[in-house]
Amino acid sequence: VGFVAYGVGLGNRYGLRLRVNRVGSRVLWSPGSLGRCRRVLAQASVTDSYVIDKTDDYGALQDCASFFVDSFWAASTTDNVKEGLGGSSLKGDAHRQLVSKQEEDLSSRYGRLTGKRRLSTSFFIARGEQGILGCVGIEVAVVKELNGAYEVLPREVGERLFSSTLGAMSGPVRNSIRKSPLDEVAAIVFDAQEGEGKYSLHPVLSNLAVSPNARRLGLGKKLCEACEEEVRTWNEGLFKDIWLIVEDANGPAKKLYEEKLGYRLLWRDEDAYSVRILSSGSAVQVISVPGTQLLFVKDLQ
Fold first, then answer.
1. DSSP line for 61-92
2. Which end of the chain is more exposed for a tag (fewer CB within 10 A), N or C?
3. SS3 sequence, 86-107?
């Protein structure tokens, strides 16, 4: 599909697979302290060779759920995200509970269905000799804009918007648009909504996580670029941009998106809420706390 990394092309759009071989001399011998050189050498040893696969397999998503808990929640780059974890990784029953919740979320959003999803989703996993090194998801979401403020609706809300609107139509009308392009169906659905606000469809990047041992070596960038190439194949090139939401307190993620991937800030929501994990003994609880969220967008022209 025209995506090249370190001189190795990405596979065809139906079985997306990327293999990267790092020679790493520029990274390994960059100026810095001896401690940093040792850390970079250790990181390079686990990322000498890896593949990025697109998957909707429930077993793979189950494996990735455990990785995501360890690499995103327990090793977060967001300030104060681990307050409820006691500064250490989740263990025992608490870890299993959170993995179960994460597996349910990943499976419902990216898992294989009997039919075809109305709003496309894809999930990518990077694997090396040491196992899973990173993951990322991309999905089409319904976005509501009102008075310059944006709201990315949860997947189930966006799907329900389509199903309820189409379900209220007569059979002949519904059948007449069944095979219409997504943008035409969306226009009909959005025009039928009452109240204020403008609705639109946008691919939204989420669930990006990289193993602590593989960070700052370009893997996060490669995962995001795989999503960009995937979006270009959806709905005959319908989508011209990618959106994402990141916490203002997540400095490393903001640097990746803005400086290395070319995203630009579209909106700053200072009245948003962020997800946090509270762990107490064998119990785990998912809560929402006030926090500033940033909405970024990248043009794919």
1. HHHHHHHHIIIIITT--STTTTGGGTTS---H
2. C
3. CCCCCCHHHHHHHHHHHHHHHH
Model confidence pLDDT, tens digit, residues 128-159: 998 999 999 999 999 999 999 999 999 999 99
**Could you give the CA distance from residue 187 to residue 178 in angstroms, rounded to a whole number?**
13
Give the phi and the psi of residue 96 in degrees, each rounded to 5.
-65, -40
User: Within the chain, where are the H helices?
Assistant: 25-28, 34-46, 58-68, 92-110, 155-167, 171-177, 182-191, 219-233, 251-255
Look up tokens 């011209």; give the residue: 240
The first and second tokens of residue 193, run together, are: 């909504």
Residues 148 and 36: their CA atoms lie apart, in Å, by 44
Q: 173-205 as b/e, with b when 16 or more CB fall inside 10 Å?
A: eeeeeeeeebeebbeebbeeeeeeeebebbbbb
Q: Per-residue pLDDT tens for 157-195?
A: 999 999 999 999 999 998 999 889 999 999 999 999 988
The pairing of strands 241-247 and 198-210 is parallel
Distance (Å, whole) CA 133 – CA 124: 11
- The sign of the dihedral angle between the CA atoms of 95, 109, 160, 197 is positive
CA dist 182 and 180 (Å) reads 6
